[in-house]
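Much of what follows relies on a compact textual record of a protein's fold. Here is one such record, which you should read through line by line:
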Amino acid sequence: MNNDLKQALLDIEREKNISLDVMVDAIENSLIAACRNSFKSDNIFAAIDRETFEFRCWAEKVVTEDSEITDPKKQISLADAVKIAPDVEIGSTVQVPVDSKKELSRIATLNAKNVIFQKIREEERISVFNQYSEKEHQVVSCTVQRYVGHNVAVNLGKTEALLMEKEMIRNESYVNGMRMKVYVLEVRNSNRTSKILVSRTHPELVKKLFEEEVAEIQDGTVEIRSIAREPGSRTKIAVWSNNPDVDPVGACVGMNGARVNAIVEELGEEKIDVVSWDPNPGNFIQNALSPAKIVVVFADPDDLSAKVVVPDYQLSLAIGREGQNARLAAKLTGYKIDIKSETQAKDTPGFRYEDYEEVMGEEEYEDYESGLGYEGEEAQDGPSDYPEDAGYEEETVNEETDGADAGEEED
């Protein structure tokens, strides 16, 4: 029986990551509670031998003269005490064995069992919280379990997490048994359970997937400077290399696109554009608007706005389906971007070279002529995050093309 108990506790320790000492303490406390409840006395104690797993219960009684005994539950005569401990004296305390197996009531036994199970559940909850709180803001693998209303319960291995409806990729099917990776948003701890919230839409999911896939990002050679994402549709990611001999875009794309394709597949064929981050806002905006060709970029770092001129035939591609390409470029760079075709730009203030002629020097004019763009001030480091209010001019989309036309040319 003791070997069975020991093996059962060791199995629980291995499977649920609960300390053996914690479980033994729980059993001891449950035995004490059961005995005290059964014998209606608070001088009952219990202990389990950590080596043999033998357990015993006893009552601590004070050795008293026969004539002075008033409470037999807490007092014992000297004659009876010396049978247990020959050297005892009047006034000392002796441990009187209690046959718990024989004398405990059925109710007390059930209560002890409930105490043990409750303690194991509590320790399991604490163990799960400690384990997954370390994985907060990380990517973990999971398996789809079932729908809970409009949400989805996923199995992380040792516990479940909840994928809320707002954190699901639109049009992605979550079939029972489907394996996928999720971003751990939050691990909440309460008195009754640990609640883990995960996401498939968070931009950090894409970032962490690239960190897992690209060795150059893991060792710090390549950095992800910013991400703009519309989950399930398209993501733009800007990367920078700390080693001039390493191409950051090539490192992220991989040979024959192997690295980026693995991430695309994980995200349900979500399109991913990897572009070079550049400290020059004009260059960065030009990269962010790829695959469209750019004639010139007039970027103003003071108010984080930019005016972009593209060839007439590239306008719909630069804007993208329903303005998506321009919108993502704006989020990626942190600049509000206004795009016009060459024909439109000729008659629009702020889009012509003449509007900047007085403040542009000869070297800046050469940049303009070569299509690198004019930023209005000395080049500054681009933002590392994307503000919520970054956007693009809606009227530009409506002037030249509708969303369907833009999408056809972009594809």
In short: Residues 106-133 form the longest helix (28 residues). Residues 2-127 form a domain with the N Utilization Substance Protein A; Chain:P; domain 4 fold (CATH 3.30.1480.10). The radius of gyration is 35 Å.
